[in-house]
Structures are given as structure tokens and as C-alpha cells.
Specification:
Keywords: Pyridoxal phosphate, Transferase
Family: Belongs to the class-V pyridoxal-phosphate-dependent aminotransferase family. Csd subfamily.
CATH architecture of the largest domain: 3-Layer(aba) Sandwich
CATH class of the largest domain: Alpha Beta
Mean pLDDT: 95
CATH superfamily of the largest domain: Type I PLP-dependent aspartate aminotransferase-like (Major domain)
Strand content: 15-25%
CATH topology of the largest domain: Aspartate Aminotransferase, domain 2
Bound molecules: pyridoxal-5'-phosphate
Organism: Candidatus Roizmanbacteria bacterium RIFCSPLOWO2_01_FULL_41_22
Number of helices: 14
Number of strands: 15
Strand order of the largest sheet: 2-8-7-6-5-3-4
Helix content: 25-40%
Low-confidence stretches: none
EC number: 2.8.1.7
Cofactor: pyridoxal 5'-phosphate
Length: 417
């Protein structure tokens, strides 16, 4: 049988909560048993520290830990394992680049470009860097249809990229997929054209909502850095990946200091490890790194193309069914063409408060998100204080869409005075 049809069985949470309709994977994904078992394996069988121990269980832990770097390297088609830094999360990866590289290359009068659809983790670090460095923060807007308001040679909107990127632009930090609008941005084209205008520009891609859901090839994208989080792709919380070009990592100062990131320490001076280890100070989240490897293997067994296609089909079905059932009473944010978006669907139902909707859905064990989804600038721009958000992953199916619709009907009835 098709693996996808039997997937729910791999997720122990559905045995505990058989009525659960989980539609909040954009916040965090559920975990398959193989990942839970792998984490347990580390704690039960070789829970020693890495790199330092000259004994068997430490060597085993080190080997399992470093093997994840190879798995991540091939998963995103990086050139070398030295381009893979373990972080705590996508957020930490972005802060690492903004602090380590950003503060050494951005100065007064320089420019940093971001977009209005960024998650706070790809907004605030650049806003704060711009303030500190007295640089200008430029923000690309979105069109009413939910696309970046950015004219490229092949995409027609109001602001041509050459009006935004210039030779003062030091950094372009941009999300691959919006966690609210679901828009898949034409990242490859944007990077190619930005680099044509200014070959020295550093492009940082937030892959938090892309890497778990579609094939991502960093060499093909042409970016300089890419971040993502393990917990949104079936892995544990507290582990993220920062991919970066080796020549940039070599020039960047460490982000934190301490054990494991040094070659030699003397009273007067310290010699650091090479990248990626120079960015991994202290005892890391060993179980998290090892668990992430298992999560990636699970995704690879299904295939990222298949996952992407299936989520787009689910999204298309959901958009159609919501339109049929609620008509003009529902506004789904972002592009209406399902091929332009990922399986994240933020919406407003009449003028009901998204928190009230989420609470009523919860009575039927349907988990969605309500609020600003860590994208307050985008919500302010769209003139909404909040939205409700349903998001899909590999364990969702058409039955979940029907449950969502039944739940929303109930919410509509309850909240209509
Ligand atoms: C687009 C995007 N970027 C970054 C993040 C931050 O991820 P984390 O909280 O795992 O660091 C999120 C989380 O929701 C996100 O959706």
C-alpha cells in the first residue's frame, strides 16, 4: 500500500488521541515513533558527551551526532558537511548570522532588505542590526493577492527589484514560504536578480516553512545562508540547522564562546576550531541532533516531491470546500492558486475573533492556531489584528478538511448572535 495512506499509524499521538485533528504543523509537527525511539536509544544506550570521550559509548554518540551532518548535507544538497551548523532553531540560526556576520559587514548608511511577510525571527534581528549599525531597513511589501510586491524580469508587480536592491545593500533576508499567506516566493529568481545588481549582497533564506514540505537544493537556490528547525519536520524541539557557504563561515567570528569550539586556549589568547564547530560552543542538544537524522530519513523514505504534491492537493481541496461551504463569509489570506502556495492556510471567518473560532474547534479536538503567528508587521499591513490558521502535513487527509468544515459550521452557528 502507498506509504502515505498508512502514515497516521506511525504517529503514536493518534493512538493516545484518536479523535485528534491536528492542523497546526506550521507551529510544530507531530513526531513519528521512529524519531521518539531514536531519541530514547541515545538516552538508554550511549548517553555520553560527544567529541571528548575516549571510550566506546562516547565514540558511538559522536559518530551518531556527526552522521546527522552527512544526512543534512545530502538532504539539502550542500557541498560539504562543513557547511552545516547545528543550532537551537531557525531563530538561533538567523540571530547567529545577524550577530556574527551582520555586525561585521553592515555599517552606517548601508541597507538591509527584508519583506513584510517575515516571521519575527527573520524581522527583529535585522531591524535591531539596522538600528545598531545606523543602516537603513528596506521592506518589500505584498500585493493584495498575497505575492511579494516585487517586479522581477519575468514577474510583473509595481516595484522593480532594481529599485530595492542597490550597491549599498549588504543583506537580503527573505522567507522561502510565508507562515501566514502560504506563498512560495520565487526565491531562486529573486536571488539571481539581486546578485546581478549587487554581486556582493549576502542572501539569507528562512527555510522554516519550506524545508519540511518540499525539496530544497541550496546549490540550485544560489543563497548564502539557509535556516530551518527540526521540530517542524518531524524532529525534536531545540535543534535547528544553519547552512552557510564555507568561505563565509571561515571569515565569520564565533557567535558564542566556550567548550568544544576551541583548538587551543592560553591566558592571552584563544585559537578557534574551524567551521562548523567554531559555532557550536558548549554541550549541544545531542539527542536532538540524532533524532533529527531519523526525522529526515523518514521524510526521505516518502520523498519530498511526493510530500509537496500531496500537500498542494490537500490545500486545493480545502480552498474549494471552504469556498463551497462559506462563500464570501470566509477570506483565505494569500494566493488563491494552490500551485503558488504551501499547505498553510490563514483565514478570517466573518468578523468572528480567531481565538473564539480556535476555542470552539478545540471542543471537537481540532487543533488550529489563532493570533498573529509571529508575523505582527504582516497582520498590521493587512489591517487584521489576528487570523485563524490551519496547516497541513503528511498525516493529514481529506477527512481532516471535512472535520474542519464541520467545526467551522459549529463556530459560525455559536458565534452568530
Ligand atoms: C517562517 C518561519 N520562520 C521562522 C520560524 C521560527 O522557527 P523556530 O521558532 O523554530 O525558531 C517560524 C516558526 O513558526 C516560521 O514559521
Amino acid at each position: 500500500m502507498d506509504k502515505i495512506a498508512t502514515i497516521k499509524k506511525d504517529f503514536p499521538i493518534f493512538a493516545r488521541h484518536p479523535n485528534l485533528t491536528y492542523l497546526d504543523s506550521a507551529a510544530t509537527s507531530l513526531k513519528p515513533l521512529s524519531v521518539v525511539n531514536k531519541i530514547q536509544e541515545y538516552y538508554q544506550e550511549y548517553s555520553a558527551n560527544i567529541h571528548r570521550g575516549i571510550y566506546q559509548i562516547s565514540e558511538k554518540a559522536t559518530q551518531e551526532y556527526e552522521e546527522t551532518r552527512q544526512v543534512v548535507t545530502s538532504f539539502i544538497n550542500a557541498e560539504s558537511e562543513k557547511e552545516i551548523v547545528y543550532t537551537r532553531s531557525a531563530t538561533e540560526g538567523l540571530n547567529l548570522v545577524a550577530t556574527s556576520l551582520g555586525s561585521s559587514i553592515v555599517g552606517a548608511g548601508d541597507e538591509i532588505v527584508i519583506t513584510i511577510m517575515e516571521h519575527h525571527s527573520n524581522f527583529v534581528p535585522w531591524q535591531q542590526l539596522a538600528k545598531k549599525a545606523q543602516a537603513k531597513l528596506k521592506i518589500i511589501g505584498v500585493t493584495p493577492e498575497g505575492y511579494l510586491d516585487l517586479e522581477l524580469d519575468n514577474i510583473k508587480y509595481t516595484n522593480h527589484i532594481s529599485k530595492i536592491v542597490n550597491n549599498k545593500t549588504k543583506i537580503l533576508a527573505i522567507t522561502y514560504v510565508s507562515n501566514v499567506l502560504g506563498t512560495i516566493n520565487p526565491i531562486k529568481e529573486i536571488i539571481a536578480q539581486a546578485k546581478k545588481i549587487n554581486p556582493k549582497i549576502i542572501v539569507v533564506v528562512d527555510g522554516a516553512q519550506a524545508v519540511p514540505h518540499m525539496p530544497v537544493d541550496v546549490q540550485d537556490l544560489g543563497a548564502d545562508f539557509l535556516v530551518f528547525s527540526g521540530h517542524k519536520m518531524l524532529g525534536p524541539t531545540g535543534i535547528g540547522i544553519l547552512w552557510g557557504k564555507q568561505e563565509l563561515f571561515e571569515k565569520m567570528p564565533p557567535y558564542q564562546y566556550g567548550g568544544d569550539m576551541i583548538k587551543e586556549v592560553a591566558i592571552e589568547n584563544t585559537i578557534y576550531q574551524d567551521a562548523p564547530w567554531k559555532f557550536e560552543a558548549g554541550t549541544p542538544h545531542i539527542a536532538g541532533v540524532i533524532g533529527l537524522k531519523e526525522a529526515i530519513r523518514y521524510l526521505q523514505k516518502i520523498g519530498m516531491h511526493k510530500i509537496h504534491k500531496r500537500e498542494q492537493k490537500l490545500l486545493a481541496d480545502a480552498l474549494k470546500r471552504l469556498q463551497e461551504e462559506f462563500g464570501d463569509n470566509i477570506t483565505v489570506l494569500g494566493p488563491q492558486k494552490s500551485q503558488d502556495r504551501a499547505g498553510v492556510m490563514a483565514f478570517r471567518l466573518a468578523d468572528f475573533h480567531p481565538h473564539d473560532i480556535a476555542q470552539i474547534l478545540d471542543e471537537s479536538h481540532i487543533a488550529i492556531r489563532a493570533g498573529h503567528h509571529c508575523a505582527m508587521p504582516l497582520h498590521t499591513y493587512l489591517k487584521f489584528s489576528a487570523s485563524a490558521r490551519a496547516s497541513f502535513y503528511i498525516y493529514n487527509n481529506d477527512a481532516d478538511i471535512e472535520k474542519l468544515i464541520t467545526g467551522l459550521k459549529k463556530a459560525e452557528k455559536t458565534l452568530t448572535k
